[in-house]
Q: What sequence folds into this?
């Protein structure tokens, strides 16, 4: 049995202590929910974490921004994750409030001074990322230049093969990065280089190219470097996307590290999506049908933002028996904004109609975390279920608890 929590985007969780079934179908039959229901699958998250840790030849830092739900963080911990990549003081506080014994790494290259100070003084954070001389000075000033400091220089990458390109905002050029490594070396107990190939990267070779670039920067810097952080970006399956298996990515990284003489460095990864995407589905209700478009009670200002402009497709199923053949549907979300549109297509029985419930899967990454309170549609229920994810991603061997 599980229990139900309600949470608005801007209000604290409210628990209803009414034991519920742990299967989505039974749960929906019982609740008949008129607000979106987030169905968490802790077993899937734990399994994905175990698989990633087993495959990756180094430390695994979970990128908290991807899904900061406490139940998800606990599942990752059970799966063996002991390092957390945080980007804000809010994330640092959350992780530290939940786990005393984990390492928190502050991996945003532009941080408020107060956040650096608080992370260093109160939360035991020792590793900070930077991509400019100004940020290096800030970190040194706010941490008192103490001898335990880990400094990681973020390297910019050329635009690559990722669905979400992250090359435009952060990162130093190779020449700047080499200069920053030289400037940081005297202050660092641990010195590193990091990069991010972009999210949902479908190309193992993108990591190999980035490792080669980092190796060149390390050579040019001419100082000892202790660690290489190959970032996030590992992909998951979506209805029209079967990514290469996880092993293809870890093999490409390991081969590039060896080829470029970096085997002596500690290796870090910062997966987000790969660990948590399969761990949450959202049950929505149909409020109106207009032709092939369903008006549902969650949308791009809720957990389905990636189904909007980014155009990701998600697996969907109707929570009712139907003999109708599958047909492609688009969704409108509940807000009054006509941009609250998801072209899908979502494949559902052709007789889908008002009142039906639909479960949409693979929303654990950048779904729940991006919800807004726009237009007053800020409520969703959160439950833990034992169902398998709607889609499995090769290499993660996720088995839900029975
Ligand atoms: C968002 C982010 C990640 C996680 O990326 P995924 O594509 O979800 O794996 C890792 N590192 C940094 C620096 C990020 O900004």
A:
């Amino acid at each position: 049995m599980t229990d139900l929590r309600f949470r608005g985007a801007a209000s604290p969780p409210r628990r209803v202590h009414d034991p519920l079934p742990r299967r989505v179908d039974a749960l929906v039959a019982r609740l008949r929910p008129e607000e979106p229901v987030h169905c968490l699958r802790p077993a899937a998250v734990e399994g994905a974490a175990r698989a990633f840790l087993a495959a990756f030849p180094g430390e695994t830092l979970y990128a908290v921004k991807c899904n900061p739900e406490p139940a998800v963080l606990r599942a990752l911990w059970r799966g063996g994750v002991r390092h957390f990549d945080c980007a804000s003081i809010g994330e640092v506080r959350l992780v530290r409030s939940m786990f005393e014994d984990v390492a928190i790494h502050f991996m945003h290259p532009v941080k408020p001074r107060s956040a650096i100070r608080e992370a260093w003084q109160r939360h035991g954070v020792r590793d900070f990322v930077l991509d400019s001389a100004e940020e290096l000075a800030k970190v040194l000033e706010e941490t008192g230049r103490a001898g335990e400091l880990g400094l990681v220089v973020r390297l910019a990458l050329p635009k690559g093969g990722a669905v979400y390109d992250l090359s435009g905002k952060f990162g130093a050029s190779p020449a700047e990065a080499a200069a920053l490594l030289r400037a940081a070396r005297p202050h660092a107990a641990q010195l590193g280089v990091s990069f991010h190939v972009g999210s949902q990267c479908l190309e193992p070779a993108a990591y190999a190219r980035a490792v080669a670039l980092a190796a060149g920067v390390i050579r040019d810097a001419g100082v000892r470097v202790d660690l290489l952080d190959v970032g996030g970006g590992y992909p998951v399956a979506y209805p029209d996307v079967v990514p290469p298996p996880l092993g293809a990515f870890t093999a490409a990284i390991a081969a590039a590290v060896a080829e470029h003489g970096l085997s002596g460095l500690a290796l870090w990864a910062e997966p987000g999506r790969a660990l948590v995407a399969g761990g949450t589905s959202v049950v929505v209700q149909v409020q109106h049908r207009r032709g092939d478009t369903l008006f549902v009670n969650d949308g791009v200002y809720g957990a389905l933002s990636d189904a909007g402009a980014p155009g990701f497709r998600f697996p969907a199923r109707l929570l009712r028996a139907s003999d109708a053949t599958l047909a492609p549907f688009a969704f409108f979300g509940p807000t009054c904004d006509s941009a609250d549109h998801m072209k899908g297509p979502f494949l559902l029985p052709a007789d889908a109609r008002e009142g039906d419930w639909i479960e949409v899967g693979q929303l654990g990454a950048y779904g729940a975390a991006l919800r807004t309170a726009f237009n007053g549609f800020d409520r969703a229920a959160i439950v833990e279920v034992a169902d398998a994810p709607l889609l499995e991603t090769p290499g993660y061997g996720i088995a839900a608890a029975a």
Summary: The longest strand covers residues 280-290.
